[in-house]
Amino acid sequence: ITQTYVNGTSGYRIWSDKYCEQWGVSTGAMPETVTLLKPYKDTNGIILITPKSSSTPTVAAGNPFASWISNSQIRVSSSQNNWPAFWKTCGYIA
Asked: What is the pTM of this model?
């Protein structure tokens, strides 16, 4: 690991080969655009997302999902508001 940054519930970790992991928590206001702290080379990376709530919502109640907008932004969505989610992205930075 060559660089690590953590600020509350968000942060990133960069490895020597430029592999980068970034994470955070959505606000629950859906859909939400998240601007990443470090832009990736492209949008071929991975997005992982899980509900923040200890009681997992049903699909109808707003199970979260995410997608790439660009190499520096993701969109976190749900069928309902007020379901914050933990998210993590992984990929290579320039």
From this structure: 0.84
Closest CA to 86 of 32, 45, 44: 32
Q: Compute the distance between CA of residue 54 and CA of residue 51 in angstroms, rounded to an integer.
A: 8
Q: Is 60 left (phi over 0), alpha (psi -120 to 50) or beta?
A: alpha
Q: Strand, coil or helix: what is 47?
A: strand
- Residue 1 Cα to chain centre, angstroms: 20
DSSP secondary structure code for residue 81 in this structure: S
Helix/strand number for the chain, H first, E second: 0, 8
Q: pLDDT digit string (tens) for 17-57?
A: 999 999 999 887 778 899 999 999 999 999 999 877 666 55
